[in-house]
Amino acid sequence: MNQLHPDPGSWEEYLERFIQGNVGFGPWGAHVRDWWNLKEQKNILYVFYEDMLEDPSREIQRVVRFLGKDFSEEVVDRICQHTSFKAMKKNPLTNYTAISSTIMDHSISPFMRKGICGDWKNHFTVAQSERLDEYYRREISGTELTFRF
C-alpha cells in the first residue's frame, strides 16, 4: 500500500528479502542492534508496542518522566484516549488517509490494520515461523534486547 516502497511480491518472496536484508532500512537485525546500542551514548527511551497495549497509562507516564515533565492524571488519560489504536485508526492525521493514494494506496490495505499482537500467527506457516525464529536468535544474540512474543 505504500507506493514509495518497491512491490513486495508474494508473502514468501517478501519474507526471503526480509531475511536477506533487502528491504527498506536494510537488514532488520543490524538496524535494531545499532539503535539499541545507541542507548549507551544517547538519551533514548525505548517503548514497545506490547507494553503500550498492556498498560498505556504506565507507558505514557514513562515517556512523560523521560521528557522531564509532570502531567496530571487527567492529561495522561486524555493522551491515552487520543493515542489509542481505535482513535488513531479513525484520525486522518495518523492513519494516512489524508495522504494521496499515489503515495499510500488504502484500496490495497489500510495503514492501520488491527492493532493487536500476535496476528503474525495467522500469516506464517510453521516453517516460516521457525525460519524467522532462527533469524531472530542469530541477529539478537549478544544483546540484552528481548521482544515479547
Automatic annotation (TrEMBL):
InterPro entries: P-loop_NTPase (IPR027417), Sulfotransferase_dom (IPR000863). Residues 2-143 form the Sulfotransferase domain. Keywords: Transferase. Its EC number is 2.8.2.-. It is an enzyme of class 2 (transferase). It comes from the Eukaryota. PANTHER family: SULFOTRANSFERASE SULT. Belongs to the sulfotransferase 1 family. This is Sulfotransferase. It comes from Staurois parvus.
